[in-house]
Design a protein that fits this description.
By secondary structure, the protein is of the alpha/beta class. The chain is built from 7 helices and 7 strands; from the N terminus they run H-H-H-E-H-E-H-E-E-H-E-H-E-E. The chain has a single domain, classed as 3-Layer(aba) Sandwich (Rossmann fold), CATH 3.40.50. The chain has a 7-stranded mixed sheet with strand order 3-2-1-4-5-7-6, with helices on both faces. The radius of gyration is 16 Å and the shape is globular. 42% of the residues are buried.
């Protein structure tokens, strides 16, 4: 694809390093950065294979790995991937665009038991590629696997559009919450966490 993700086009020089420094400082201060991973862990069998799509600096994937899961993280920003490799050795971190990534072609042929798209990633992909992103993520997850997506309602991506794109990608909604700590969904919620299941084509 010729269009660049909004993470690249909407931010000036230095933004990636600011983001890296911010999360390093939060971790050093003892901030709770593991909420997304706790939710995923509760849904998974031990030693599940997890795709961290839009992994950023690796905080979610690293926590899942610490809980015994096998993690591969993908992000379009090489600076964020370099920070993930430096701060969280163990998982495999890869630079790629979520709208077109193909992990089997990159040497990771196994399907995943789950995928997580956290950190408002869906608001940072290139405008109009949201269906492609969900389709590519779904293509890397086994039938019956789970995909959990969280993003803010003020980011320009309508929840109705998301639901339609997820369904087109073969993902069916099982649950929706207003936060990663499972507060009930409301129509006026400012954030949505959606638990999806990949349909079994058989």
């Amino acid at each position: 694809m010729s269009v660049s993700p909004r993470w690249v086009t909407d931010h000036g020089p230095g933004h990636s390093q600011w983001y890296i420094d911010r999360f390093r400082a939060m971790a050093a201060d003892g901030a709770d950065l593991g909420g997304e991973a706790r939710l995923l862990d509760a849904l998974l069998a031990p030693r599940s294979r997890v795709l961290d799509a839009g992994c950023g600096t690796g905080r979610v994937g690293a926590e899942l790995a610490a809980r015994g899961h096998i993690v591969v993280g993908v992000d379009v920003d090489p600076l964020l991937i370099a920070a993930a490799e430096a701060d969280h050795p163990g998982p495999r971190w890869m630079v790629d665009d979520l709208a077109e990534f193909d992990l089997p072609a990159g040497g990771v042929p196994e399907l995943f038991d789950a995928a997580v798209i956290a950190g408002n990633v869906m608001a940072y992909v290139a405008l109009g590629t949201e269906p492609w992103v969900l389709a590519r993520v779904a293509a890397h997850v086994r039938a019956g696997g789970v995909v959990v997506v969280g993003f803010g309602m003020d980011r320009g991506y309508l929840i109705t559009d998301f639901d339609a794109h997820a369904a087109a990608a073969g993902l069916t909604r099982e649950h929706r919450f207003a936060t990663w700590d499972l507060r009930p969904w409301r129509d006026d919620a400012t954030f949505a966490v959606t638990v999806l299941r990949k349909l079994d084509p058989s």
